[in-house]
Write a structure and sequence with these properties.
mainly beta, three-stranded antiparallel β-sheet, 1 helix
Length: 75
């Protein structure tokens, strides 16, 4: 999953059905991380089917999305 950050802040990648694991910009994703503006890449290693990328404070305050993105099929 490639995405672009416009506002520098801590962000989380979440799934409705449980914890998310993977590599964010080449390092293990272990929860909220400060991201600078620019292009970022997340490679999922968990089996979650729908992901959301959110501002960490929104997640911590339980503001969760109604919709989640579908990961691209592996090639």
């Amino acid at each position: 999953m490639d995405f672009q950050v416009l506002i520098p802040a801590p962000y989380k990648i979440i799934a409705r059905d449980g914890p998310v694991t993977g590599m964010l910009d080449g390092t293990p994703y272990e929860g909220a991380r400060f991201l600078a503006p620019g292009q970022h890449t997340f490679v999922q290693t968990s089996s979650r089917t729908q992901l959301a990328f959110l501002w960490a404070q929104a997640v911590d305050r339980n503001f969760l999305p109604d919709k989640y993105s579908q990961p691209r099929p592996k090639r």
